[in-house]
Specification:
This protein has about 220 residues and is an all-alpha fold. It has eleven helices and no strands. It has one domain: Tetracycline Repressor, domain 2, CATH 1.10.357.10.
Length: about 220
Amino acid sequence: MPEIHSELPPMAPPPTLPRQRLRYTRILDVAAGFARKGLDSVVLSEVADRADVPLGTLYRYFPSATQLMLALYRKQLAELHAANSPAAAGAGAAGSSAKKSAGRSAKASAATTKGAVPAHALVGVAMEIFHMRLMQPAVEQCLSRAVYTKDTDTTRLLREIDTTAEKAVTAVSGDAAISRVLLLAVTGLVQSVRCRRLSLFEAEEDLKKACFLLTSGRQTA
């Protein structure tokens, strides 16, 4: 049986010049706000207007709302992968070296390092996951409306998110238990926003509080 390929129009590759890259990133950032309400809310002319870029420029990079959504999801997934990198996981190691240079004992330094969790970094990763989960229904709509070859990168996007999210949170927090609890909190907050029990702002504030409570609890343990 022959493979069925997408009939979506071709996109221009991401720009390389700094000014163009800023426009490209601004388009994706603005699109995220529309995507939280579903794929039908992603109107390219409105995205272009809000991002302050010519509509022709937006069409050159993203000829359809589907392609814009999938590009945004890939960008967010790449940022999660970056949070799961050795550099992110090694943030606590730098603090450990500074403490050792201050003359603390090896035992005290190890205990401090074990307790030190970068709350601000955890907030950043958690927010990324939260917003990805909010726009996930729009991405699922993209995949249901377009036809793709089996096992292409776009169909793997939705399967990657859970594994990547858990690894990213664990890499930053250094604690698998924190990762599990925080991801459960994200799931609950996403549902609350979708059911309109919480506003987006309230959910973001609650998520920040959860990150600080989890990290402070570990520091005092």
